[in-house]
């Protein structure tokens, strides 16, 4: 009996791992292809796209082209600023809103939470035309501000939703102990609550940052010029109507992975469990 | 340090009344314990004193000031929670210093207060640890330390020992008692454990269903319970109760018909109007003595024997079907199924009317009285 149970569990584990492993391979293979081909000459890319770079096909010409272009650094800088500023604003506002929704009782509390949650279901791109005309009216076209504003709006609903759930889990005694300790509400939020939901905050940061970094739509519409292009737009300049410089495209894509990978590593280190252990009981 | 006064405190959640007009005076330096079954409102009352719950009506005064609308931090209280509620991301030192640091206390004074509290509670060597690295008892001491460093007017304890194991509970109980002697502070302590209440309190407040049943010193509650509820709640094992009928009253005695037949004359002043009424007779297990004659004899078959070493509890089924607990000496050789006889003095008895109110005992013998 016990043996059967163990066998059952083992076979289940094998199946689960097989599924996850094949999914990982499928997801990583395109990235792998981009990176290996970025290090090949143009001929190498077209002759044997699946092959690893050999001494014959190895070439850094794509990277040289990309790094020669002075404005590429600007694009990186633009993408980084938009992503980081958005993350900071989204996390701050979402955490504060989530705290208010989960901790304080006020009229229309639930209605407000539902209203904010609806934002998860409605794609922001449906409003592109009105967003564009709004940005034109505000004179924000071709500024990074316009992107930050749109991305904050895009990221907030899910962030609030996730953080509210986490804040509900913080023991009530802890907040009350802090109140008895003479800690003000703002300080309770920043010094007690925020450190405790750090894993959730990191999760939300990852959720928020990836779509922003990868977005082509809004940079193309709201900030396509004036040196305010993001990295995804920067890659587009190598893709022509008739000729595409694949070396440069693949090299720039490979480079574009690096900053977001670093950001991800920073946040994922916060995804540790058991942070509240020892608080109560 | 301060006194505390509760004046007709009521609390309702919507249509549900939880507290019905609580009056209480707590003197400076007094150790007051709220005790009662779960759901009696004792924790709610403590939270009201702390300022964590609003008062529906009535006044709460600390040091003569009405503090009904003041926030917890402006009331000068410190609370120790059942769940400890330590800040998990801070070390023991920071946990204790957090409140003071925010109050912009001078750094040297803060350090001195934290270290003094830590040495009082033997936490010196643990100051750099996180709560997750501490045992339950140590965590509870940190929670107490966090309260001490604030030097509050009133300490509030909400079932602080409930999460500790039995041995640690006794040890921490003694530490709290010592702490009170040392700090001479006003303490309000909530527990459902009557032994904690008896051992710690200067004054016990027995609560039931949102009302105060009786306020008094531990020995007063033990010897002179005002109601049947208090009589049943204070004392372990609980008092034995049986229904008796009043058949005659005199100035200072009452004659009752015992359930097994026979009568007993007891020293109570009972109004003549009560003759013919059923009342309840209470007798504590420790006041029943084996193999002797007395005003209140019982006899029956032993059903359960609990040997505690220093004493043995016998659960005896009387002929009328009542189960009576009695305390025998530790060397008692009574066995299950054996028939035993025991008796108690009339002076040890308690008599309650149909509403659970006690009848006044007359000429109470010294060993059954709280008077010194």
Automatic annotation (TrEMBL), chain A:
It comes from the Bacteria. It is a multi-pass membrane protein. It is found in: Cell membrane. The chain crosses the membrane at residues 12-39, 75-101, 113-136, 148-167, 188-213, 248-267. GO terms for cellular component: plasma membrane. Keywords: Cell membrane, Membrane, Transmembrane, Transmembrane helix, Transport. GO terms for biological process: transmembrane transport. Belongs to the binding-protein-dependent transport system permease family. This is Sugar ABC transporter permease.
UniProtKB/TrEMBL annotation, chain B:
Keywords: ATP-binding, Nucleotide-binding, Transport. One of its GO terms (molecular function) is ABC-type maltose transporter activity. Residues 4-234 form the ABC transporter domain. It holds the Pfam family ABC_tran. Transmembrane segments: none annotated. Belongs to the ABC transporter superfamily. This is ABC transporter ATP-binding protein.
């Amino acid at each position: 009996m016990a043996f059967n149970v163990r066998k059952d569990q083992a076979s289940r584990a094998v199946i689960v791992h097989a599924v996850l492993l094949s999914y990982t391979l499928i997801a990583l293979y395109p990235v792998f292809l981009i990176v290996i081909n970025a290090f090949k000459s143009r001929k190498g890319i077209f002759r044997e796209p699946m092959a690893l770079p050999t001494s014959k096909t190895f070439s850094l010409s794509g990277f040289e082209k990309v790094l020669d272009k002075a404005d590429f650094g600007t694009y990186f800088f633009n993408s980084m600023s938009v992503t980081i500023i958005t993350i900071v604003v989204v996390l701050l506002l979402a955490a504060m809103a989530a705290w208010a929704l989960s901790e304080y009782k006020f009229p229309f509390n639930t209605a407000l939470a539902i209203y904010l949650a609806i934002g998860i279901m409605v794609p922001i791109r449906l409003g592109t035309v009105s967003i564009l005309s709004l940005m034109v009216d505000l004179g924000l076209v071709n500024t990074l501000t316009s992107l930050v504003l749109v991305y904050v709006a895009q990221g907030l609903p899910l962030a609030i939703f996730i953080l509210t759930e986490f804040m509900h889990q913080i023991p009530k005694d802890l907040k009350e102990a802090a109140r008895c300790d003479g800690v003000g509400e703002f300080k309770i939020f920043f010094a007690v609550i925020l450190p405790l939901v750090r894993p959730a905050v990191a999760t939300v940061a990852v959720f928020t940052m990836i779509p922003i970094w990868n977005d082509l739509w809004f940079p193309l519409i709201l900030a396509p010029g004036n040196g305010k292009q993001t990295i995804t737009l920067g890659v587009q300049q190598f893709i022509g109507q008739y000729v595409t410089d694949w070396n440069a495209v693949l090299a720039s894509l490979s480079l574009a992975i690096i900053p977001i990978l670093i950001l991800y590593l920073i946040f994922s280190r916060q995804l540790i469990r058991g942070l509240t252990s020892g608080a109560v009981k | 340090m301060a006194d505390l006064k509760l004046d007709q405190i009521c609390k309702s959640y919507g249509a549900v009344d939880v507290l019905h007009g609580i009056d209480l005076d707590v003197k400076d330096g007094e150790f007051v314990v709220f005790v009662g079954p779960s759901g009696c409102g004792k924790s709610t009352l403590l939270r009201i004193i702390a300022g964590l719950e609003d008062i529906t009506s009535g006044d709460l005064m600390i040091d003569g000031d009405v503090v009904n609308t003041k926030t917890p931090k402006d009331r000068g209280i410190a609370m120790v929670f059942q769940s400890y509620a330590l800040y998990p991301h801070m070390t023991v030192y920071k946990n204790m210093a957090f409140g003071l640091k925010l109050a912009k206390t001078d750094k040297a004074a803060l350090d001195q207060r934290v270290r003094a509290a830590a040495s009082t509670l033997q936490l010196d060597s643990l100051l750099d640890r996180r709560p997750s690295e501490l045992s339950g008892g140590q965590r509870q001491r940190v929670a107490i330390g966090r309260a001490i460093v604030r030097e509050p007017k009133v300490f509030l304890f909400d079932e602080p020992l409930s999460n500790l194991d039995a041995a640690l509970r006794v040890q921490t109980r003694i530490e709290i008692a010592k702490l009170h002697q040392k700090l001479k502070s006003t303490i309000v302590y909530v527990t459902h454990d009557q032994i904690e209440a008896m051992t710690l309190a200067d004054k016990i407040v027995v609560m039931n269903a949102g009302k105060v049943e009786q306020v008094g010193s531990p020995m007063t509650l033990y010897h002179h319970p005002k109601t049947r509820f208090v009589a049943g709640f204070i004392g372990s094992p609980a008092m034995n109760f049986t229904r008796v009928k009043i058949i005659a009253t005199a100035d200072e005695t009452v004659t009752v018909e015992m359930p097994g037949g026979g009568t007993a004359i007891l020293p109570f002043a009972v109004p003549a109007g009560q003759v013919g009424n059923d009342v309840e007779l209470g007798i504590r297990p420790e006041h029943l003595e084996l193999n002797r004659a007395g005003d209140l004899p019982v006899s029956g078959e032993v059903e359960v024997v609990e040997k505690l070493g220093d004493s043995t509890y016998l659960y005896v089924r009387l002929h009328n079907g009542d189960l009576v607990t009695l305390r025998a000496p530790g060397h008692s050789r009574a066995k299950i199924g054996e028939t035993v006889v025991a008796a108690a003095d009339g002076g040890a008895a308690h008599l309650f009317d149909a509403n659970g109110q006690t009848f006044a005992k007359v000429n109470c013998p010294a060993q059954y009285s709280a008077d010194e």
